Amino acid sequence: MRWLAAPLAAAIAVLAFGACGDGGAEPGASEEATLVLDFQPNAVHTGIYRALAQGYYTDRGVSLDVRQPSNSTDAPKLLASGRAQFAILDIHDLGLAREQGVDVVGLSAIVGRPLAAVIARDRNAVHDPADLDGGEVGVTGLPSDDAVLDSVLDAGGADPDAVRRVTIGFDAVATLAAGKLDAATAFWNAEGVALRDLGVPTREFRVDDYGAPRYPELILATSAETLRDEPDLVRSVVDATEAGYRDVAADPEVGLVALLDSVPELDQADQSHQLAALEDADAFELGGPLNRAALAAWERWDREHGILSNPLALDDAFPELGPAG
């Protein structure tokens, strides 16, 4: 589930993503690389902006260009084509891309727990998922939405077939605020925060509290080719990114400052509230190096709920990284 998504099968638009690399670079010069975010910059990306502000990438010899996606960006294929060297991917999208033959690999967790939830608009009427029986729930139309909704309803004692699903795209905030539906699948750190700020008396059912394992939602990813051909670049970007997120886990304010300094058009209050939600959930402290048991539990859950069709070779999808050379 994503705030902004394009089908993995969609064609790549002609974008201004030049192939960055060390072609022709002088010895000792910084190596250029591009990182594509999963959405417009927001609080979940504070560790990246902290690492940029502190020079963690340049200290490791990397000149990193961070870009937000356009509506038509297909990040896995941008990685595979070499038009970007790194991307932040939803873990479900990474798995689906590999099923479709796109050889992308996960490197590190940006956040260490799921961000998906079923959000009910009236906490006084809905106390547990069973109260949604016979109701209407909005979904974006992505496969992961049905998985999240089924998991929450099953674990909460509700019948998934007793809920009417309405495809609303990415309009959960407006739809719930207007009282058009009983609930919707959404991200608790984004739409959930926005709804509370609007004064909507919501109740959240986070998927890892209702049947799902505690898997990492967002992953720093690259292509298998980049990992094979430029292992030192990959290790350097991973190390710098993880250092930035460790800073934010220890002191969230430094991440907020770095984000707002880099993207001043963002609303400070909105980002502060989103960051507080992530901090309260220890989302960043659970990030960083990938936990193999968590990945295995995620893979099983995705197959059981129909997101992935076949077993995923986890050692290929999430390879162990060696130290930077």
If you had to describe this structure to a student in words, what would you say it looks like?
α5 links the parallel β6 and β7 (164-167). This protein has 325 residues and is α/β, with parallel strands linked by helices. α1 (46-53) crosses α9 (231-250) and α10 runs antiparallel to α11 (268-280). It is globular. It folds into two domains: 31-113 and 215-317, D-Maltodextrin-Binding Protein, domain 2, CATH 3.40.190.10; 116-209, Periplasmic binding protein-like II (D-Maltodextrin-Binding Protein, domain 2, 3-Layer(aba) Sandwich), CATH 3.40.190. It has 13 helices and ten strands. The model is unreliable at 1-25 (pLDDT under 50). It has helices spanning 46-53, 56-59, 75-81, 91-99, 143-155, 172-177, 191-197, 224-229, 231-250, 252-262, 268-280, 292-304, 314-317; strands spanning 31-36, 62-67, 86-90, 104-109, 116-120, 136-139, 164-167, 183-187, 203-206, 218-223. The strands form two sheets. It has a five-stranded mixed β-sheet with strand order 2-1-3-10-4.
